[in-house]
Amino acid sequence: MNVIARRVGNMARRREKAWRWEHWGVVPDRETQLALAAELEVSEELLHVQPWPDWLPVGDPIRVDFSWDQPGSILALNHALEKAMMDRRGFMRLTGMSLAGFATDWLNVEPAQLMSVLRGGRITEEFVAQIEAGLPRLRMLGDSYGGQRSRRLIDAELGMVVEVLEKSSYSATVAQRLHGLAAELGRLAGFASFDEGLHSAAQRYWVAAVHSAHAAGDRAVGVNILKSMALQCKDFGNFADGLTIARTAYESAGEVTPRTASMLAVRLAGAHASVGDVAETHRLLGIADTQFGRGTRADDPAWAGWFDEGAFHDHVGVCYLDLGNLRRADSHLDKAREGFSPTRRRDHATYLIRRAHVQNGLGNADQAGDLLHQAIPLIEQAPSQRNVGKLLAVRDRLPNDTRRSDLDQRLSTLTG
After folding, report:
1. Torsional class of 88: left (φ above 0), alpha (ψ -120 to 50), beta (otherwise)
2. 251: CB partners within 8 A, 6+ apart
3. Which of 167, 246, 368, 406 would give a disulfide with 268, using CB separation of 3.0 to 4.6 Å?
4. DSSP-assigned states of every residue in 340-371
5. How far is it, in rounded angstroms, from Cα 333 to Cα 331?
6. Phi, psi of 391 (to 5 degrees)
7. pLDDT by residue (tens digit) across 138-192?
8. Which ranges of 236-274 would DSSP assign to H, the alpha helix?
């Protein structure tokens, strides 16, 4: 905070003001926060999503200079495990060339031959299979109970896999599977952090996870991680980087199943919608629809299981929402309504908030308020700072009347 105090001394006109922010817990007014955000190159949208001082940039820089081999992968994982759990809420540190360059670098390096033996005991394929069997449980944990409650458990599981990689001996085949596990666990830990509003931590996990995917020789896992990084950029209003990363993921996926291809196409369509590119959004949505219509296959990756018909229409609806076509957005969101599993509380809450946004835009403020009321108990069951921020953004668009007052009483359980 000392750096912040020095940077804002002139803006606040008196250094005592910055000192009060740092030591007395005084919150600067909105105008001062906006000026400070501009000085620190933080998007105005983040100020709305994250309260003071959570949006301030803090923490160590995020490294992306790890080598694209097994030692580099393990070093990246250890760096994430050491730093990510200490990251504070509210800031995405990798942007611009650092972020977009990382997304493309891993594609240009051939996976080095995996080391067959490290020190320690010999790891069998049966042992790895037991760890792999726990992945569905961890995916369910985040979907059902939110990032806040799942993050530490996923981090602990990732730490165990890294310890095995460092201290045990194993065949090249087992090494690939271990790195594949580390990649998926890093993706899950990153998304749990993203969901909780810990954006620097999310980036650390995802950087390490992409290295692990490269070491495992699994491009599909890598592009799925990049897809999450693109979504984070969109949430921050960093649309240019989000488009670059989503395009990298889509164009470099290689041979993937139709369901995976649809998922990547609709994410890229969303990135184009964010920048108002109507023609390219429609073209990619057509590709996504065609690929999705080819159905599921036995070789669909397990991590793509969430992308069912409800999720497909939900994401298409978001594309039309971003383009300002509320009627088409509402049509797709209506199709998505029946597709959410009761256990996927976090996604269901996100859907309800999106639908409320659309309904309010269509002039149906009462229905929008009802949808936000329905989302609150789901967020209570699956805490999500991301959903809270999105809900508050829609709430602020509602008419300032009794409906909003009633909603604020319930919201106090989430923000109080």
Report:
1. beta
2. none
3. 246
4. --TT-HHHHHHHHHHHHHHHHHTT-HHHHHHH
5. 6
6. -65, -45
7. 888 878 777 777 888 888 888 888 888 888 888 889 999 999 999 999 999 999 9
8. 239-251, 258-274
Amino acid at site 174 = V
Nearest to 350 by CA among 397, 311, 309, 316: 311
Amino acid 39 reads E
The β-bridge partners of 122 are: 169
Give the predicted TM-score (pTM) of the model: 0.76
Cβ–Cβ under 8 Å, residues 84 and 155: yes
Return the CA Rg of the chain: 22
Kindly state the tokens that stand for 173.
């085949």
Q: In whole angstroms, what separates CA 350 from the centre of its chain?
A: 13
**Two tokens at 293?**
């219509």
Tokens representing 94? Answer: 């990798």
Query: In sequence order, what are the beta bridge partners of 169?
Result: 122
Q: Which residue has the tokens 């891993």?
A: 106
Q: For residue 312, give the amino acid letter.
A: F
Q: Quick one: how far is CA 305 from the chain centroid? A: 17
Cα atoms in the Cβ-side hemisphere of radius 13 Å centred on 296:
12
Per-residue three-class SS string for 9-22: CCCCCCHHHHHHHH
Q: How many residues does the chain have?
A: 416
Mark residue 41 as left, alpha or beta (left: phi above 0; alpha: psi -120 to 50; beta: remaining).
Answer: left
d(CA 406, CA 353): 17
Q: Encode pLDDT of 216-268 as tens digits.
A: 999 999 999 999 999 999 988 889 999 999 999 999 998 999 999 999 999 99
* Selection from 366, 369, 378, 365 nearest residue 413 by Cα: 378
Query: Which residues 6+ apart lie within 8 Å of 118 measured at CB?
Result: 165, 166, 167, 168, 169, 170
